Amino acid sequence: GPQAKCGRERRRRGPQRDAAETGRRFRGRSEMRQRKTARRARKRSAAERQRSRARSAMRLKQDSDSGPQRNTAEKDGAPGRKRSAAEKDGGAGRSAMRLKQDGGFGPAMCGRRQEKKMRTREEALAYGLSFPDTYQEAPFHDPNWQLVRVRGSRKAFLWTYEKDGFVHLNVKADPAWRDFWRSVYKSVTAGWHQNKEHWNTIILDGTIPDEDVRRMIAESYDLVTDSPTKRIYEAVKKIPRGRVATYGQVAEMAGDRKMARAVGNALHRVPDGSTLPCHRVVNAGGRLAGCFENQEDLLRAEGVETVGGRVDLEKYGITI
């Protein structure tokens, strides 16, 4: 049978070879387990570092807001001197008075200022409408869904709705910060009913400081209103007179070297009569654009020499 056959094969190979193969298999499994454990540890350590940095930043801010704290001995008596009963009673009375003024849990108890928390839809909408060229809309004919859009592009950067007894906000997030916010606050989750790679959901349950909620809304507005074409035009304006830049260099100055083709498309859409120095942009080899009739004349007027429809990039090219 099969068992007898396996036994004959083991006897034919010999005990030493069989033990060696068993050792190799064991070592392979052990190394695989070690690699998996190391990967998990690295992920946990990275997440812990992010949370630790966030907590340190929050503590630093809270400590700076509360101001320097003097110790009790310096406030109620000379340091190192034993206080009398009257001084102790006076200190207790002052502490009780501060506690009453702070509503029972103010700086006298915790040594930090109470942070304001955004809890209502009206506060979120009011802050979203404070940005330029924005307006409020209810596109689904449902009063529960209120959006704040940007005029012109009509892109929404703030979605508000009520769910499970709390107001929820959907905001666009930069992938570099998306996971950071989710790891710092449990009330920041992947975007509900939206692309979870680019949107976050903020639950206004009182656990997120007002400052961070406003920061996430502002980041969403910046991402929605960002235009690659505008960044390309601003980069072209930075090319000095008497110099030229390649499409790739302009794309890099605009924030993404991979959009060199988009630079060409954006420059083709420049209206006639524009003062944008498009003639200072050449291809990677220094060759002029064939569709730009007076590009060579404009470059020569600025002191840039051309030979055979090509510019010497080593002499006239910019460096980034």
How would you characterize the overall build of this protein?
With 320 residues, this protein is α+β, with helices and mostly antiparallel strands. The protein has 13 helices and eight strands. The strands form two sheets. It has a six-stranded antiparallel β-sheet with strand order 1-2-3-4-6-5, with helices on one face. The chain is extended. Mean pLDDT is 77; it is low at 68-113.
**Strand order in space, largest sheet:** 1-2-3-4-6-5
Query: What oligomeric assembly is this protein in?
Result: single chain
Strand coverage percent: 5-15%
Class by SSE composition: alpha+beta
Task: Give the tags.
320 residues; two-stranded parallel ribbon; 13 helices; 8 strands; 50% helix; 11% strand
